[in-house]
Amino acid sequence: MSKKVFEVTQAGYTIQADVSLIGKDLLITLTGGDNPHIGTITCLGKEVAQEITRFPSHHGRLHKDDVLSDCLLKHITPYLAGTCVITAGVHVNGISKEQIKASFEMTEILGKKIARWLKNADFPTEEPRYDHYHKTYNG
User: What is the pTM of this model?
Assistant: First the structure.
């Protein structure tokens, strides 16, 4: 497993992408601001359409952090070898319009940095093998 952390700071706060390469799959934890959390989960695979789960906040509204995940995905999707899961949760107390705009700019920068890293990633070339136990177990 290979891990890398990317950070960008603008408009008085930081967004961090903690990236783990797990076999051919990618797990990204995108957090930042005053109250990092898991607001949304975005899943995408070579043969699986994008799926988004939005969790409720303490006020009952659904988090919308998946808009930041979409910014990341537009840069990294061409380099995905397997499944990608992004958990996202960025919250800035009393966020301003400037800080909202900056969140997209920072995520764009993170997406480009992750894409450059993925271009040189050492993805496994050997496919998993299954033997007769797999057939027996599944009937």
Answer: 0.88
